[in-house]
Amino acid sequence: MDRGKQMLKDNAQKKNQPGLVGNEISMLQRWRQKQEVHALGQIPRQTQTEALPLSFAQERIWFLQQMEPASTVYHLPIAYRLVGALNVSLLEESLAVLEQRHAALRTCYTEVNGQPVQRISAQQRRPLSLIDLQELRGNSDFPQHLKAVLAADYQIPFDLERGPLFRATLYKLQEQEHMLLLTLHHLITDGWSNGLLMEDLGALYTALATGQALPPAPEGLQFVDLACWERARWQRGEMDEALAYWKRQLATAPALLQLPLDAPRPAVRSNRGAVYNFQLADETVAKLRALCRAEHVTSVMALLAVFLVFLARYTAQEDLLVGLPVWNRQRKQAENVLGLFVNTLAIRISLAHQPDFRTLLERVRVATLEAYQHQEYPFEKLVEQLRPERTTSHTPLFQVMLSVDAGADEQLSWPGLILLPENVERVGAQVDLTLEITEHHQAQNGFDGFTCAFVYATDLFTPATIERMIGHFSQLLQACVAQPDTKIARLPILSQRELQQMTVDWNATQVIYQDSHFLPRLFEKQVERTPHEIALTYKQAVMTYCQLDERANQLANFLMARGVTSETLVGISVERSLEMVIGLLGILKAGAAYLPLDPYYPPQRLEYMLKDAQVPMLLTQSHLAERFAAMTMPLVCLDEDWQRIARFSQELPAISGSPEQLAYVIYTSGSTGKPKGVMNTHRGVCNRLLWMQDHYQLTGQDRVLQKTPFSFDVSVWEFFWPLITGARLVMAEPERHKDTAYLVEIIKSAAITTLHFVPSMLQLMLDEPGLEECFSLRRVICSGEALSPLVQTRFYQRSQAQLSNLYGPTEAAIDVSYWECQRGDQSKTVAIGFPLANTRLYVLDHLGQPVPIGVPGELHIGGVQVARGYLNKPEQTAEKFIPDPFSVEPTARLYKTGDIARYRADGALEYLGRMDHQVKIRGLRIELEEIEMVLMQHPAVREAVAITRELAPGDTRLVAYLIPTSSPMNQGDSLDVEEIQRYLSARLPDYMVPRTFMILESLPLSPNGKFDRQRLPQIMEETPSQPRAYVPPSNDIERTIAEIWGEILHLQQISIESNFFELGGHSLLVTQMRSKLRERLHVELSIMEAFRFTTIQTLARHVSQSSRSAAWSVQNIRERAARQRQAFKRKHP
């Protein structure tokens, strides 16, 4: 927000709001005149120079600097290249006079009795250092070296207590060329003040260089006068009307903007940041200005509206808050005062009801004009009054800002000199993301447009992500100004190149398989190739390909004789056995489709599925027949009735078989509580199997373990992939697929090379002794749940096999994407990867439009594997199976998975969870998977699950279920929950730390080995919905802290479980608390720790258990800052 002389004059003329037009200027002028009349003669001058109060804005920045003492995010650099004959002595004298005239340049800040105060020195040293770089001028890398030197200079820490908070360095580049770098701390300046400073410095240098009298020193107010006056007005209640406005405006506002991040949000936010610069196209600028004139809005309003559209498209949120800095110099007395006047407005805009851009512009115009009228209410006091959820992980109220500036002259002129502005590379970010836009109007170099920058937190975003954001913002801006009557949700955010990449290039999966797409034919061809090889084993029984084919043919001919024909749905309910495989093949060979029914399902569920599917016949086993005695359809027992079946021909049934025929129906859990039958065709399942063979290349030497219950679709490839490729199918014993010891045993004894696990079951398997001795194992395929990086890492620690992560719903023939896990991969997530052959994957928003890379959306599936739909449920089929707008085939459809995913830059997909599992607590979205991952990184935790439970209306709580490890650290004792909480608090935002824990022996699993969330035990404790009951202090430390809190919060009684900030605590009171803790308990509590340990109980425990590290003491921070200053001086003498 740096401005020069012309900018200052322009803004003074425009009454502090550059670009306002018509009625807006008139309204703000009347309001400002009213304020000036009201304030005339009422701002007293301060006579003392010691222990003066800070302004509210200064308090906030002082406090934030204390939170991160070494941070330079509040350093404001001003750099100019001086070309011509410079008189260094006159420049030095000009700086000395400048310092004497502006008290802010002689101000430093200290703490008295827990209160920050400012002190004005009579005169400090002349702040000019001269560094000669002429010897390096000829080097080819000198420009980069100079840029690095400037960045390092401005990052040298200031000593707030000793000052000065203003320094000047002059770099001599050659005889007629210098670089002047002025660095000021934000406590004493803002962008407007920097413009004043350069104007005054130029006037002083000009007078000295030309022999003229120095311009008269301003006799008006100093900033400290206005700071004291601001406090007096606030204490008198003169700002109460503005407070009422902001309370109405921000009531029930969302706590956090859910921008998609490249890394988990850290528990403690740092100010580390970077800047990415860009420029708006001339054509876009012309259209933007024309639209502003037509709609009577300023460029600030228009760009804010575009920024809101951008944020909405990235977050899918409609209720948005953006920080908007304003100069806050409404009164004429403040226009020439150097100091920190800038205030930040929390602009809240609703994008509900899908407005067009023109309508949104009007909403923004009204909201910003109202906010301008109430702009002097200090943001810092607003945060105290609103008491938002306080956390060290993000800033309160808003996490993004827009800064729009009227540009200064591109160059300044002093006697014998031309001053060219130089950009200094900044490395700090005050919020997650700031869009800085500077508007230039026919500057001296002829540029007339906008220069822009994204200032971003490097803890959260990568440069590649920011580069994409710039492209998307620019794309939306072009669309907004060109199509203002278009609904904002329909404005294009992707370029044509991106759209082509995401919809076409990344889905270029077409493969023509020469094999049949009718499943029995694939098996029969393999029978012809290897008739006498073993196809199937179960316990001690074996069957060759020829034997299996003959028995399946007999069953098929038997079924056809009983009236089974093409697409007849035949039920089968058997235990894992030879009969199971014969039954499935026989049904398919008859041209029918099979419906697998787990015999151990509850009778009511079995009855529902049989009736819903209208099954005319059920295949079972004699010992299971009693379960279906009440059913009316015919039963065929594959064991007891085999003699009848064996009378039928072993020859191939005379059916043609079509790829579009139904192959099987598998029931999945429904959102209504009723399961839905998914109809899959031969084309879909054959494509899936042929891709798998093409990718993994099974041979006759492979052994595939079939252990998944056949009512789950993974079983389909377990059955048929080995049988169409000449491998051997090994059947696990019934109900032993969750017995890890048995699985290790059968892998060894049967020389299994290939098997499947859901991640929950793999987690258990990795704890089983002997796994590393399963030398035959070549590949393990995971699907069905999200695979965590921790499980991936543990797998490669215990096995030499290859781990693959597949993804797919039952509605798309088992799996539709694949990812080959890599040993040593350090990624935060395990991708679900890329689409299979002849499959297309799209990540779309709620309107069916592709979303940008990195932005979450609903995963949609297209291609040959998409199922027909839901059996006998046309409405649900129409809802979930929709026309494919990206296909040239008129009948092509997409399946809406209900899963949230996002693209990586390389086209790989990441699975983010279910849409119906989105969790929020107090308006903050909670990433349960992230909590679980951090929990499982603790050495005493083997497995963890995080959920939310509503204990009472309005009382939703995070609950963590933990399975302890058997490590020596644990030694069989129960986990130390308090230690686990401390561990989490150091790694996660406070709102993501569970307060309730339950220790379990194991996690409940479903029949196919998936984690069963519904079977987690209920919380045993009762939590009332009323406010917390009073819990008294139990030791001396708690009593001392309670006394301190009572004094600073003015409360008689405080429960040790009450939250400091919920009781009315705020940043300034944190400072007082630290001072009193230092005095009474002799502990040095950092501000970050005060925000992390927010109850008397947790703070007392921290004080008593944690040794204070010298690295965080105030004295050490000062010493480190001094060392950094000395090191820089040695490097640049």
Automatic annotation (TrEMBL):
<dbReference type="InterPro" id="IPR000873">
    <property type="entry name" value="AMP-dep_synth/lig_dom"/>
</dbReference>
<dbReference type="Pfam" id="PF00550">
    <property type="entry name" value="PP-binding"/>
</dbReference>
<dbReference type="InterPro" id="IPR025110">
    <property type="entry name" value="AMP-bd_C"/>
</dbReference>
<dbReference type="GO" id="GO:0043041">
    <property type="term" value="P:amino acid activation for nonribosomal peptide biosynthetic process"/>
</dbReference>
<protein>
    <submittedName>
        <fullName>Amino acid adenylation domain-containing protein</fullName>
    </submittedName>
</protein>
<dbReference type="InterPro" id="IPR010071">
    <property type="entry name" value="AA_adenyl_dom"/>
</dbReference>
<feature type="domain" description="Carrier">
    <location>
        <begin position="1032"/>
        <end position="1107"/>
    </location>
</feature>
<dbReference type="InterPro" id="IPR009081">
    <property type="entry name" value="PP-bd_ACP"/>
</dbReference>
<dbReference type="GO" id="GO:0072330">
    <property type="term" value="P:monocarboxylic acid biosynthetic process"/>
</dbReference>
<dbReference type="InterPro" id="IPR036736">
    <property type="entry name" value="ACP-like_sf"/>
</dbReference>
<dbReference type="InterPro" id="IPR023213">
    <property type="entry name" value="CAT-like_dom_sf"/>
</dbReference>
<dbReference type="Pfam" id="PF13193">
    <property type="entry name" value="AMP-binding_C"/>
</dbReference>
<dbReference type="InterPro" id="IPR045851">
    <property type="entry name" value="AMP-bd_C_sf"/>
</dbReference>
<dbReference type="Pfam" id="PF00501">
    <property type="entry name" value="AMP-binding"/>
</dbReference>
<dbReference type="GO" id="GO:0044550">
    <property type="term" value="P:secondary metabolite biosynthetic process"/>
</dbReference>
<keyword id="KW-0596">Phosphopantetheine</keyword>
<keyword id="KW-0597">Phosphoprotein</keyword>
<dbReference type="GO" id="GO:0031177">
    <property type="term" value="F:phosphopantetheine binding"/>
</dbReference>
<dbReference type="Pfam" id="PF00668">
    <property type="entry name" value="Condensation"/>
</dbReference>
<dbReference type="InterPro" id="IPR020806">
    <property type="entry name" value="PKS_PP-bd"/>
</dbReference>
<dbReference type="InterPro" id="IPR001242">
    <property type="entry name" value="Condensation_dom"/>
</dbReference>
<dbReference type="GO" id="GO:0005829">
    <property type="term" value="C:cytosol"/>
</dbReference>
<dbReference type="GO" id="GO:0003824">
    <property type="term" value="F:catalytic activity"/>
</dbReference>
<dbReference type="InterPro" id="IPR006162">
    <property type="entry name" value="Ppantetheine_attach_site"/>
</dbReference>
<dbReference type="GO" id="GO:0008610">
    <property type="term" value="P:lipid biosynthetic process"/>
</dbReference>
<dbReference type="InterPro" id="IPR020845">
    <property type="entry name" value="AMP-binding_CS"/>
</dbReference>
